[in-house]
């Protein structure tokens, strides 16, 4: 090898947006992927993040909650705003509104399996009509100057897993990247995610846009396995990040070194829970900010012995100062507790 050889590292891009060699994306999750949580995920290594999904009908009618979800901040860029809907005119107007908010990307949700979304042929519901899915996507691509990406699933059910064909058709009408959850709509979130067809998409010589895999990645070793086995361009992480934004840092460390790094310590967990709660209240208001924080506490403090009583207080208390006091009490009582990685036995070495 010549001493002056230059190594060129392939950069994953969504159109002209550089995301790094193997980006980790925060999945769009309702009542989770809000600005307070995105700030933490960005701090700990997420390369790109998506907002909670936004109803096209709610947005064009100026519904407060839908409009608020357009809030994005400079520190979290690049960021994508995700929308869902089935009415073509409403989605066109929504795309125009989203463009005014100036995200890097407009993402279309074709993956949400929730009944109230699906029954309107939105989200994963549109997987029952692939021609409509392609037509609606083309309409949105033509209606905006933003790069358009899609998040979807393998298919509606076991008998309709057409994602290899679907990905190619969507690419051909102009989307700039696709993220695929390795389950069908019928599976919801049950069973194991199957990445086999995601790998088949990457094997298609006609595919040239980034393909991101999603589903069941909860550790560095799992991320490396999916990368090596299926050749994806990056990984989208969802549920494993809830109450544990350090997942991005840990996955990156493992991909770089082949070694698992120590989990977040008690100081980091308490600081994150406190800051998350503080910003959640500031952004959503006291009642909703407290309520929507509750799903995070279990993971923030998972593994601590005899934590059940305090965790119950965290998910039932409605008074902010009391919640902050409980969090600080956890810091004091577990100051010497040592957490271990998933492959190690967690014991208290205090």
Concise structural overview:
This protein has 350 residues and is of the alpha/beta class. The protein is built from 15 helices and eleven strands.
Describe this structure in words.
The protein is of the alpha/beta class. The protein folds into 2 domains: 12-257, Aldolase class I (TIM Barrel, Alpha-Beta Barrel), CATH 3.20.20; 266-333, Orthogonal Bundle (Non-ribosomal Peptide Synthetase Peptidyl Carrier Protein, Chain A). Helices cover 41% and strands 13% of the residues. The chain is built from 15 helices and 11 strands. The chain has helices spanning 35-43, 56-60, 64-68, 88-101, 115-118, 130-143, 163-172, 196-203, 220-230, 247-257, 266-284, 286-291, 294-300, 308-314, 320-333; strands at 12-14, 17-20, 24-26, 48-50, 54-55, 79-84, 105-110, 148-153, 177-181, 211-214, 234-237. An 8-stranded parallel beta barrel has the order 3-4-6-7-8-9-10-11, surrounded by 6 helices. Strands 1-2 form a two-stranded antiparallel ribbon. Helix 4 (88-101) links the parallel strand 6 and strand 7. Helix 9 (220-230) packs across helix 10 and helix 11 (266-284) runs antiparallel to helix 15 (320-333). It is globular. Mean pLDDT is 92; it is low at 1-8 and 346-350.
Strand order of the largest sheet: 3-4-6-7-8-9-10-11
Head-to-tail CA distance between termini: 51 Å
Radius of gyration, in Å, reads: 21 Å
Total helices: the number is 15
Largest pleated sheet: 8 strands, parallel, barrel
Order of helices and strands: EEEHEEHHEHEHHEHEHEHEHHHHHH
SS-based structural class? Answer: alpha/beta
CATH class of the largest domain: Alpha Beta
Number of domains: 2
* Count of extended strands: 11
CATH architecture of the largest domain: Alpha-Beta Barrel
Outline:
globular
């Amino acid at each position: 090898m010549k001493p002056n050889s230059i190594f060129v590292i392939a950069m994953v891009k969504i159109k002209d947006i550089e995301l790094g060699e193997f980006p980790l994306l925060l999945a769009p999750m309702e009542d989770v992927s809000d600005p307070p949580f995105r700030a933490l995920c960005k701090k700990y290594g997420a390369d790109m993040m998506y907002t909670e999904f936004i109803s096209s009908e709610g947005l064009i009618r100026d519904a407060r909650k839908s409009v608020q979800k357009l809030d994005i901040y400079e520190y979290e860029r690049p960021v994508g705003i995700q929308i869902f809907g089935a009415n073509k005119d409403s989605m066109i107007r929504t795309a125009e509104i989203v463009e005014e908010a100036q995200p890097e990307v407009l993402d279309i949700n074709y993956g949400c399996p929730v009944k109230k979304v699906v029954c309107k042929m939105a989200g994963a519901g549109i997987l029952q009509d692939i021609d409509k899915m392609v037509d609606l996507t083309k309409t949105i691509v033509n209606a905006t100057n933003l790069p358009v990406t899609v998040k979807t699933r393998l298919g509606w059910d076991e008998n309709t897993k057409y994602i290899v064909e679907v990905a190619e058709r969507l690419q051909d009408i102009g989307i700039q990247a696709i993220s695929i959850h390795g389950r069908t709509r019928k599976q919801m979130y049950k069973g194991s995610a199957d990445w086999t067809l995601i790998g088949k998409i990457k094997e298609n010589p006609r595919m040239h846009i980034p393909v991101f895999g999603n589903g069941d990645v909860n550790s560095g070793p799992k991320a490396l396995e999916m990368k090596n086995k299926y050749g994806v361009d990056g990984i989208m992480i969802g549920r494993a990040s809830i109450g544990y934004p350090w997942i991005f840092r840990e996955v990156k460390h493992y991909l770089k070194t082949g070694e698992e790094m120590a989990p977040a310590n008690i100081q980091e967990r308490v600081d994150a829970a406190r800051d998350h709660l503080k910003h959640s209240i500031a952004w959503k208001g006291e009642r909703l900010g407290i309520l929507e924080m509750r799903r995070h506490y279990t993971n923030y403090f998972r593994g601590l012995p005899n934590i059940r009583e305090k965790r119950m207080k965290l998910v039932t208390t409605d008074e902010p100062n009391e919640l902050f006091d409980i969090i600080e009490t956890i810091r004091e009582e577990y100051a010497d507790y040592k957490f271990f990685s998933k492959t190690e036995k967690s014991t208290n070495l205090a």
